[in-house]
Each structure stands twice: as structure tokens, then as C-alpha cells.
Write a structure and sequence with these properties.
Blueprint (H helix, E strand, L loop, with lengths): L1 H25 L1 H4 L13 E7 L2 E4 L2 E10 L2 E5 L4 E6 L8 E2 L4 E5 L2 H51 L4 H47 L2 E3 L4 E6 L6 E2 L4 E7 L2 E9 H9 L11 E8 L2 E16 L5 E9 L18 E7 L3 E7 L7 E5 L5 E5 L1 E6 L2 E6 L6 E3 L12 E5 L1 H11 L7
Parallel strand pairs: 1-23
Antiparallel strand pairs: 1-22, 2-17, 3-12, 3-16, 4-11, 5-7, 5-10, 6-9, 7-8, 9-11, 12-15, 13-14, 13-16, 14-15, 17-21, 18-19, 18-22, 20-21
Helix pairs in contact: 3-4
């Protein structure tokens, strides 16, 4: 029994696996399933975007130049003499009000010359009185001689007088006429000499005015070359000064950057209608002065090919505040900004437009490439001329892989929008 059971178990151990294998072969076609097809989707690349929208733009250009006074004054000695008086304000850096007398030159010689002229004129007056008295006497003598001559001629016609008597009367008349003429000529010479003396007197009086050196308008004293007791010569520079009523800055501007600003002006306006601001960087802050475009210089800098525009700042000394706003002085290097009236435009970061192309995110959150033309640039932003519209989502970040049509995850950079608005509007607060 045990052997039969053992044989049966062994037979089942062989037969059962064989039957299971056969069944698996038979039903393998119906049980087979295709492998699961799983597509691995790549995650969307995050990009920063800017929602393009119109904003206020102030077209402007920046140049640099040095400060110079609008008016310069030099006191030139027009006479020779010793400096006998000086003003306490006669020192470098002092501000002298208009009509302040800075120094006086000794006028003794000029006053003596005037006294001499007066004496000569008085002598001429006496001579003229004497000559006029003599002239009356000689004219009377001439009249008598003329009468005697006429009488002698009448007597000759009657046969009473001789020719010798007539000749003698004529000689007497001629001698009397010569004396009258001589006196009249002397009076004419005295009149001419009087005119000469009058001219000399006018010259002395005019030179007398030159002994006083006074400032014609308020100015800051510069170099001083005259001191008390010093003898100055004609033509020497005594004092220099700079007018305080205004300063001028001749600033250089790139010609290529001036075009867009000028084109932004209203029809009929010119460079003179641009708004001007002068800036000076001081520790801790920047100081500004309102200015006015005064004129455009004729020449162009040959090295930089920059145009020169002169702006004027009125009363800079009055605007000075100790420790806050320094006075604009000669040779200060300052920045000058010229700007046109504000307008609405599309403004984007300059780095978002490379080689005339930019990336935008379309409605399906996919990258698309656009051709963009810029009108002009302001600092690190550009004004769009063509290629972008309000509402476009401009890519402002630099994705590691940028392929047109790829899916991205846009994230708006609101801080960048505010920064662009401040730059475009000239630093004014963003509304």
C-alpha cells in the first residue's frame, strides 16, 4: 500500500505541472495584455514676465559740462598812478554789491592838469578882451584912412591932389586893414586854442573818472593784482570778478541721442523749448537746479562728435544752502538733463530686446519670438516702436533653454514694472 501511494504521488508530481503548462499555452493568447504606455511629461520652465502696458515717458538726454559765470568782469587800469584807497571787500572770494568802489588811484596830477587848463583859458579870456579893444581902435583907424583915400581921389579928379598923395593914402589904408586882419586872426587862433584846451579839459575830467574803480553789478571777487600804495600802469589788470546773477554750462550731448528728444517736441518748437535741469552729486544726495536752454553752440566736438548746448541757471548764489546746496561756481563739473514734454508709450527693459528680437508668452503659455523695433533708449529701458502691443507678456528673465513653442510657467514681476515706470518718467513717483 505504501508503495502504491508513493507511486501515485510521484505520478501526480509529474502530471500536474505538465497539465498546468499545457493550459497556460492554450490560454496564453487570451490572457496576454499590451504593456502600459506611460508618457513622462517635463515640468514647465518658470520665466519672469512683464505685462506690457502704456506708461508715462519723459524723452530726455543727459550731457556733461563745466560751470562758467554768465558775465565776467575785469578792471583794467586806464591811467597811471598810485593806489591810495582800497575797499575791505577787495579780496578773493568776497561778494561785492553793485557800484561798490573797490579802489581809488591818485588823482593829483589830473587835478593839476585841470587847474593848468583853467589858467590857460583865463589867460585867453584876457587876451581876447585886449584884442577886441585893439580891434575897435584899428577898425576906426581903418575907416579914417578909407575916408582920406576917397577924399584924395576926389581932389585928384578936380586936379587939386597929386598921385603921390593918393598913393600915400592907399598905403595908410592898407596898413590899417592889415592891423585889423591881424587882430581878427589872433582872435580866431585864440578860439581854436580854446577848443584845444576844452578837449584837454574833457580828457582830464574823463581820466579823473578812471581813478575810481567800482563794480558795475554784483559779483564775486576773483584775482586781485592791486594793493594799497602800489603804482599801477595803464593797461594793467587790477581786479577780476564773476557776476552772481547767473551761470552758464556748456554741456556736450551725443548727437545721435538728441534726435528722439527733439522729435518729441510739439510742432514749431526747437531745442530752446526743452526743459533743462542741472545736477551735482554731493555726498549723500544729488542737488538740482532748474535751468533754461540759452543757445546752441556752433561747433561740434571733433573727438566725441557731440553737440554743445548752453544752459543758464539764474541766481545760483541765492539758492545756496550751507551743507545742503553748494553754490554753483566756476569749473564745477555738472550733469545737464534736457527733456521733452511727457507722453504715453510702451517701455520695456533694454535687456529683454536682443538683436531686434524678444520673447513673449502666448495664450497657451508657450514661448513665441517677436521682431521688435525700438524708438529710443533711456538709461536701461527702451521705448518700443513696433513689434509689441499692450497686453503682451514679455519675457524679462533669461531661461536656460529658450525654444519657440516650449511650455513655460509665467510669473509677473511687479517690482520690475514699478522700476521701469520710475525710470521712464524721470524718477517721479509711480501712480
Amino acid at each position: 500500500m505504501k508503495s502504491a501511494a508513493l507511486i501515485l504521488l510521484r505520478s501526480l508530481a509529474v502530471v500536474v505541472p505538465v497539465m498546468l503548462g499545457a493550459l497556460s499555452i492554450v490560454f496564453s493568447g487570451s490572457l496576454a495584455q499590451a504593456p502600459e504606455n506611460r508618457e513622462r511629461s517635463k515640468p514647465a520652465v518658470p520665466v519672469r514676465i512683464l505685462n506690457v502696458a502704456p506708461m508715462k515717458v519723459v524723452p530726455r538726454v543727459t550731457g556733461y559740462g563745466t560751470v562758467a559765470p554768465a558775465r565776467e568782469w575785469r578792471a583794467i587800469a586806464r591811467i597811471e598812478g598810485e593806489v591810495v584807497e582800497t575797499s575791505p571787500l577787495l579780496a578773493n572770494g568776497n561778494v561785492a554789491p553793485a557800484d561798490t568802489v573797490l579802489l581809488r588811484i591818485d588823482d593829483t596830477d589830473l587835478k593839476l592838469a585841470l587847474a593848468q587848463t583853467d589858467a590857460q583859458e583865463s589867460a585867453l579870456d584876457v587876451k581876447d578882451q585886449t584884442l577886441r579893444a585893439s580891434l575897435e581902435i584899428n577898425r576906426a583907424d581903418l575907416a579914417l584912412n578909407q575916408s582920406d583915400l576917397e577924399r584924395q581921389r576926389v581932389l585928384k579928379d578936380r586936379g587939386v591932389a597929386t598921385q603921390a598923395a593918393i598913393d600915400q593914402a592907399e598905403r595908410s589904408a592898407l596898413a590899417a586893414r592889415a592891423k585889423v586882419t591881424e587882430i581878427e586872426n589872433q582872435l580866431a587862433l585864440n578860439a581854436a586854442e580854446r577848443e584845444v584846451l576844452a578837449t584837454q579839459r574833457a580828457i582830464s575830467e574823463r581820466n579823473l573818472e578812471f581813478t575810481t574803480i567800482a563794480v558795475p553789478y554784483e559779483l564775486r571777487i576773483g584775482a586781485v593784482s592791486a594793493e594799497l600804495g602800489q603804482v599801477v600802469t595803464r593797461g594793467a589788470t587790477l581786479v577780476t570778478g564773476d557776476g552772481t546773477e547767473a551761470v552758464e554750462i556748456t554741456a556736450q550731448f551725443p548727437i545721435g541721442l538728441m534726435g528722439p528728444v527733439i522729435r518729441a517736441l510739439e510742432p514749431g518748437n526747437s531745442v530752446l523749448d526743452l526743459k533743462a535741469v542741472v545736477r551735482l552729486a554731493v555726498p549723500g544726495h544729488t542737488v538740482e537746479w532748474p535751468a533754461k536752454v540759452e543757445r546752441v553752440a556752433e561747433t561740434v566736438d571733433t573727438r566725441t562728435q557731440s553737440g554743445q548746448i548752453v544752459v543758464r541757471v539764474e541766481r545760483p548764489l541765492e539758492q545756496a544752502q550751507a551743507g545742503v546746496r553748494p553754490p554753483l561756481r566756476r569749473n564745477m563739473f555738472v550733469e545737464v538733463e534736457l527733456s521733452a514734454p511727457p507722453r504715453e508709450a510702451l517701455v520695456v527693459p533694454a535687456g529683454a530686446v536682443q538683436g531686434g528680437r524678444a520673447l513673449v508668452v502666448d495664450a497657451d503659455d508657450r514661448l513665441a519670438e517677436r521682431e521688435v523695433k525700438t524708438a529710443f533708449s533711456i538709461d536701461d529701458v527702451v521705448v518700443v516702436g513696433q513689434g509689441l502691443q499692450a497686453g503682451d507678456r514679455l519675457v524679462v528673465s533669461d531661461p536656460s533653454i529658450a525654444i519657440a513653442g516650449m511650455t513655460v510657467r509665467p510669473m509677473e514681476d511687479k517690482h520690475l514694472h514699478s522700476a521701469i515706470a520710475r525710470t521712464a518718467s524721470g524718477g517721479e513717483p509711480v501712480e
